[in-house]
Specification:
Layout lengths: L9 E4 L2 E7 L6 E14 L4 E7 L3 E6 L2 E5 L3 H15 L5 E6 L4 H6 L7 E6 L2 H10 L1 H4 L7 E5 L2 H7 L5 E7 L13 H10 E10 L7 H12 L4 E8 L7 E8 L19 H7 L4 H10 L8
Parallel strand pairs: 7-8, 7-10, 8-9, 10-11
Antiparallel strand pairs: 1-2, 2-3, 3-4, 4-5, 5-6, 11-13, 12-13
EC number: 2.5.1.16
GO biological process, one term: spermidine biosynthetic process
GO molecular function: spermidine synthase activity
């Protein structure tokens, strides 16, 4: 009898089942040995896997690319969410575009100052898979301040009323498939229109080692729109290179901590967040060159 083929993006070897994550460009493979497949679905937008891995526990995988894991997902979620919420003068209304695993939402909702959080995720099955199989990341999702909307984040912002959010987080997957438009200048312009005066936008900006062109396009586009553009970085062990960038953009001229970091973070600390904006020399020299031109609009 022929053996049952493994699910899409998984490879069966003599020592078991492996997830093989092919990095953009095809020059690097990331491998994770898999204990069990917990969930699989092909949606109109992407292929979804939830697997239990030997080294990183349960992980969410979209189109063969690891998005988050129980072992290290809190690092990314804390570092995309806490910097803007600490720096904004009064973050009452927050929008997350993407973030269907609900990990970033869980961090945002740690702030009592946040009165409402709208999360726009294009694929409802991502949210359902996270809630069912990754409650360690998603939490209960029952906070009354959270409004979940299943729709295209690009269209949502294109039609959103102006000046309604204090903080917007773009917690997207890599710029392939449904996430391509979330890295376009037109999308950032729509995000700026939706920000209140003094609002803060944070964009996950990929790896400076593997995705230099993406980082360059993000910084260049945001610099044309905002007075202040500050890239920062963090480790994310299960992402290619283990070294990831975010970009914070705002029309605020001075960035300073306005409140106390919640006490139940596992990675983020006040000193660590400050250090994240102090880029290593090889990054600072590169990004400074991209940010020298003044913004075209305010």
């Amino acid at each position: 009898m022929a053996s049952i083929p493994p699910p899409k993006h998984l490879v069966r070897r003599e020592d078991g089942l492996w997830l093989v994550d092919v990095e953009e460009g095809g020059g690097t493979l990331l491998g994770f040995r898999i204990r069990e497949v917990l969930f699989e679905a092909q949606t109109p937008y992407q292929h979804i896997l939830v697997v239990d891995s030997f080294d990183y526990g349960k992980m969410l995988v979209l189109d063969g690319i690891v998005q988050t894991t129980v072992r290290d997902g809190f690092i990314y979620n804390e570092m995309i969410a806490h910097p803007p919420l600490l720096l904004h003068p009064d973050p009452r209304r927050v929008l997350i575009v993407g973030g269907g695993d609900l990990g970033a939402a869980r961090e945002v909702l740690k702030y009592p100052e946040v009165e409402s959080l709208v999360l726009v995720e294009i694929d409802a099955q991502v949210v359902e898979a996270a809630r069912t199989h990754l409650p360690e990341i998603a939490g209960s999702g029952e906070d009354p301040r959270l409004e979940l909307r299943t729709e295209d984040g690009i269209r949502y912002l294109e039609t959103a009323s102006p000046a309604q959010f204090d903080v917007i987080l773009v917690d997207s997957s890599d710029p392939v498939g449904p996430a391509v438009g979330l890295f376009q200048p037109e999308f950032y312009a729509a995000a700026k229109r939706a920000l209140r005066p003094g609002g803060i936008l944070v964009v996950q900006s990929e790896s400076p080692l593997y995705h230099r062109s993406t980082v360059e396009s993000v910084l260049t586009a945001l610099r044309k729109l905002f007075h202040t553009v500050r890239p920062y970085w963090s480790v994310v062990p299960t992402y290619a290179g283990g070294f990831w960038m975010f970009t914070l953009a705002t029309d605020l001229e001075e960035l300073e901590f306005r409140r106390t970091l919640p006490g139940n973070t596992r990675f983020a600390t006040p000193s660590g967040i400050r250090a994240a904006f102090d880029l290593p020399p090889f990054l600072r020299e590169w990004t400074d060159g991209l940010l020298t031109s003044p913004p075209e609009t305010r």
